[in-house]
């Protein structure tokens, strides 16, 4: 076992980034075609206009509060992607509507009607178009309207989203830089005054207002009168997992054996509290009542959930199944109690404050969040949740990483088919598992036990039936095509053990027991029980957090985005059975993410495989490269085709743009491990890196640029992973040197007004694992030592006595 290595080879160039040459029409969605039948479009416009006028009249009649500067909102569904820099000013100038929000991957826009005179001309153009189509007329109209499919008034019904309680409500507020002072702020201040007058407790920031203990009548009054509300949802979280089955035993039976707890990383456990009447007591930090939002006691776990989560975070799976003996902890634990029942309202704003406080007061960098909005799975291709947005903003500001469970499908019975259940919409992830700056963790069927039991999911590495998939569906051809899909936009990020239903036959019937022998054995908060059998992604997330703690024990100076990159890079996708062949690869990735981490390869390098780490920065609009030297002994190896395997992962964090789904991540970063080419040559442009596509630079047919910047209607990913093999002839042809290139650019649809905010230097982490593959019986040189000898590499840390238990 050897430590991972910092890659410190000198940067060989830094230039203005040039994208590859175009190969298709980026505006193909908008192209006009001759001899089009416009009758259906005319009918849709006529229906949209009639409904808009009717609903506007009703909304105006329902206004009962004196509110300054009322305005109407129109929501428009477009034929294709709405290119904001190209169209925004024209729509404002010609139609009197100002863009405030884009969703459905920018095929749906929400606009303030801020100039009613100009807006009337919009209706006039519609009338002319309808008349031309129906009466074979030839009168002039604004051609922009043909890019519209239909539209509607955005009213109170549109503002209500996921709602099942009035104990805590989350109201998202619209923004517009030019209309903020004139229209939006006066309404926001009036809304705050309204809440104060009604003695309704609330908290607010620039993006939302959170209100507590209100009613249907009050909410309806708010939505009917205040036009600044974009969306309303309940902040109601639930424990992720079924009720526990108790295995009665009278003593806990294990002890924490660390001689010295100083220097251990701290994990913040955001859950139902952690019992201190367990062997975990020595590793618990007592931060006082400020970290208890329930006022029921941090160290009382009345729902018997947070204690088991905490044990997995600190100890991993090493005590399964019996929880006996001595075990060293990988972390200290900071309880952050946000609920005292299996379900309860959650204040997002208070939770954000506690995470921030845990980081500032105790230096906490790792958090587990296993309480999600499980009852509200995100519809296919819906926009990112406000909860995920809040966590992404926080992680962008701080050097932290939150391990978030996908939540569990709660609509599973004995007749639910596996794996077909994953196709259901209620198998989609629930907020905040759609967070992009953090790690989302799903569950495989593993429970770390051997026995005669039969798993519902057949094999331990298969995804458990209750785990949830990404809500982004690249098979939706109304939104995605071959050019704007992004194979790197994958959730969950990884799978970890979560246990499984046990497949049983009782009284001649096939049943699936959720708390049987195939479930995980988890620490109970109750001495009478000691160990409980349970399943759920709420246990997968802390097991992943335990990996992060082990990494920080070995390499305490690493950036948390590097920790994320290492975990994802060490993951391997399981080989799924024939039943999964009915699903396309993009769908399978929605369920399994990048797969299950290999813990040894995550933590250590060795003589046959070395993990190199680049922590650097790049400025948008630039490209840089480094040389990576390959040992010459490989030129004499017996294996020809797959001599080396490269597995690499890029991670960076970003400030989310919350009013634009396509631009939620507004920054593109791509990388390539490629041919030994210069960044730029004046007279030989085909033999360079900058401005060239993958086919010009790749080492083989399966590698190249990790992410293509060309198409402007593509949502870009801040996590990219590539795995490819390199042949011996390729090493020789490139004179034992490859190039590592990084490029960065702002998303093409960012407006000039937004570009300044995102034009800062961007830190990134790139992890590269190089593995040599000798033929059977062949002995190759020490790859680790040879790489060190010819590159500028530095051990991240001398591991020695710091080796951790696996």
Keywords:
6-stranded parallel beta sheet; 24% strand; 806 residues; globular; 17 helices; 6-stranded mixed beta sheet; alpha+beta
Question: What is the helix fraction of residues, given as a range?
Answer: 10-25%
Number of strands: 36
Shape: globular
How is the largest sheet built, in terms of strand order? 33-31-35-29-1-36
How many H/I helices?
17
End-to-end distance: 12 Å
Taking the sheet with the most strands, its summary is: 6 strands, mixed
Low-confidence stretches: 24-34, 243-250
Mean pLDDT score = 92
Structural class: alpha+beta
- Computed over alpha carbons, the radius of gyration is 28 Å
Q: Beta-sheet strand percentage?
A: 15-25%
Describe the protein in words.
- This protein has 806 residues and is an alpha+beta fold.
- The protein has 17 helices and 36 strands.
- It has a six-stranded mixed sheet, with helices on both faces. It has a six-stranded parallel sheet with strand order 16-14-18-20-21-22, with helices on both faces. It has a four-stranded antiparallel sheet with strand order 2-30-34-32, with no helix packed on it.
- A hairpin with a 7-residue loop joins strand 25 (520-523) and strand 26.
- Helix 1 runs antiparallel to helix 3 (116-135), helix 7 packs parallel to helix 10 and helix 8 (348-362) runs parallel beside helix 9.
- The longest helix is centred in the N-terminal third of the chain and has 24 residues, at 39-62.
- The chain is globular, with a radius of gyration of 28 Å.
